[in-house]
Amino acid sequence: MSIEQKTALITGAGQGMGLGVAHHLAAQGVQVLINDIDPEKAEAAAQAIIAAGGKALAAPFDITKTDTVLAQVKQLEDEVGGIDILINNAGNAGNNAMGQLPFKDMPPEHWDMYIGINLYGVLNCTKAVIQGMCDRGWGRIITISSEAGRVGLDINVSIYGAAKAGAAHLMRHLAREVGPYGVTANVVSLGLMDNVPEEFAGPVIKTIPARRLGTTEDVAEAVGYLTSDGASWVTGQTLPVNGGSYAI
Fold it and tell me: Could you read off the pLDDT of 19-28 as tens digits, one per residue?
């Protein structure tokens, strides 16, 4: 299932799960382009991968800005010879703190920070790379989503969930359009991860069949499979990575 010699653009990869995915792919011989809105985080992440023996390049830009994304991706493709894999990882509330409010109490002016990063960011980056993938006859697009976009939850994240659901459904339509060109489009839907406060996580862990939170390694392994040649017949699908929660 080798993907050596491929190039992957990973959004929001200056830290956390995105950085873990970048290290995982780099260890398989993939050249990784580290996107982050913070140039210092992007550069530090790229240097860490290079120090570990991988191939990496910092690619800092704001994925919510359509013109910026199209221009930056064009420049990257000219430099590296094409982007074969796109991991739409950037999410939550973008560069803002993730707030939880009932929809009835959330001011409309707060909607954009969730829709911008979780939906328009996916639209922009996917648009920027999809033609090149189709032209070359091979491509992998993986959108990191959330169970909040797959099932209804009572934790006051309705706009976030709606944006995640929109991005996930884009992948299903896209898979039908680009399948004949050798390009797949899939979703990894995450359950409760180990980046939440312990006081919140403690009681919830008891409700997870696997009795633990998800880790960066769990995400990286799922992404690794979906990027591989072994998953060439898997497209338009949502892979729940959730420890057994919401088994529907």
Answer: 999 999 999 9
